[in-house]
Amino acid sequence: MMHRSLASQDGAEGSAVSGSGNGNSVDPSASQHATPTSQVATPTSQAATPTSQAATPTSQVTSGRAGSKRKLTSAVWNEMESKLENGEWKAECNYCHKKFASGPRAGTTHLRSHLDSCPARHAPMGPKQQKLRLTKGEGGKVNVENIIFDQEKARKDLALMICEHEYPLSIVDHSGFHRFCSSLQPLFKMVCRNTIRNDIVAMHSAQREKMANFFATFKHRVSITTDLWTSGYQKRGYMAVTAHYIDDSWNLKSFLMRFAYVPCPHSAEVICEALYECLVEWHLERKISTITLDNCTSNDKAMDILPDKLDTSSLMMNGQLMHMRCAAHILNLIVKDGMSVLEHGIERVRDSVAFWSATPKRHEKFEKMAKTLNIEYNKRITLDCKTRWNSTYTMISIAVQYIEIFEKLKEREKKFKCCPTKDDWKFAKEICDRLKLFFDITELFSGTKYVTANLFFPKVITIRLAIRKWGNSDNELIQKMSEEMKDKFEKYWKDIHGLMSVATVLDPRYKLNILNALYGPLYGREHAATEIEKVRKLLIGLVKQYKDEVEGEDTWDAYVAEPVGEEDEAMKLYDLYMSSRPTVPSSSIHTELDLYLEEACLPRTQELDIITWWKVSGSRFPTLQKLARDILPIPITSVASECAFSTSGRVLSAHRSRLTPNVAEALMCMQAWSRADMLGGWDSTLFATFQSVLEDDEEEMDESTSIITQE
Prior knowledge:
Structural class: alpha+beta
């Protein structure tokens, strides 16, 4: 960093200037005194900024003002340029190019004050060194390229590296890391922990402002997922807020917006206020489509309060469809209720796994027996957590693959007295087959790289049909499990969320036909007709709302893959309905919606990227296209926000428990944005601005508490 002493320069230049004659006359002795100073500054200034090269000795800077006989003797004119604009003299800073009043009566005090606080002037600058780099070109040719070492860019990349790979901030203090960086580039000037921390916070603030400005002009709706998490070491609550939308190029986007500290108590009012502040900060309070949260009382109350703070006239159907409950969380509740009656049936399987995984010696015996029986042991037996049904499914699914090993060890190990019987293994396989349905659907619902909204309705109906089928099982425990699951299902999913039904209709393979195919066998024709009419009315209402908002065509070049699920009961019913449905002759089409619904459905078995279909073929239905663009990105789970907590558990570890909330958020968000490839070019002036803000508004705490503990 380059510092200048203006007072000393004023004195030196004042002695160098003599005479009061013509403004263009220059004392030779003055230039001789000034030349050494400018030569000393040459290496750093030439490598730093082009503006510094334009600086000339004070003796050579003379007034260009008409009728003025006074030379510009102040040292500020080494870094300012006097210009005549609209008949008034202005002084322009060579660094930030701001303009100030100038003239005989204006003085230079205000100019000197600006130079002392100019962010661009005090921006971190380091030496640049040009080198040659050899790169491999086409046909095995070697290309020679020029590269320039840039201290500022190196610091930025170091900060990003720490964020991306969750390195400790104290890595910059490690002697080994110092030696490594010095061997790579001796010119790199290592920074301390406080400096790299400030760099990360400044980069996060600048990038967040850019992204918030992007959403200020974004013309489509954004879906939000959010969840709360309490750090085990800090005992602080954090809210992760994730945004989901389709961008102007029709790419499905999902990224972490905020990782905000939420003070206790985590009541509905506190959650609502924290979420509302986030929406306002990112200019999304009038552009949200839905908010997906876990199913708990505080979240439900918060979503009752939030509409009062928003302009609901700008939301879908006046905000009536804004609240989405996490489908994965509801699936978890359904399975847990069903598993509560199965504990006795899988008890011996769990005890057997616990016995052979209890000690390393026993597990080695298990592995040796697998080799003896020539059974491939590629999945290690693991004991489940009783409160997590997915871990129970994993335990059973692995254990049933090694039944022969358990049976053989029963003959050789006297202490092993809990080996399951044949009936136990048979029951375990039945349970495993049933849990697999929930496991696969939960995994499908939890995706963030593809559209899940159009998958919700058929998969939920598949679960309902499966639960009803299990009620006819010969096993009493399976029947009881079915009853427990049915009660929980009816509590949450008796009525499918309206937008999820609309999303299924917007799938050109299904349209309204899938509602007719599935609602009938499940609830009867009369109830099915009522439910279908509700969906049709909702769709008509949304089309009317969107009709005046249709935009022109965009340019698209995106592809988002959609997973192809296995054949299930719901799809079999749909195929049966489509094969028996009578052909309806085409009638006079009056509306865009009628035109879409009257068109023949695409084959269900066709591998379809629904976003690509709507961006290309959907151009014939501009209103529906805009509606699909807002509904399809809606996530049906809050997994995207919950994923942030798996990372935050590592970021806010025992060794980093004293990270302040703003630093924790900067680390989390910068990592997420970098991995999502959402970081654009870096503006050095913006970087310098935020550096000065950090220096002025530094947290009032001791150094020992403002940085992380030594790692």
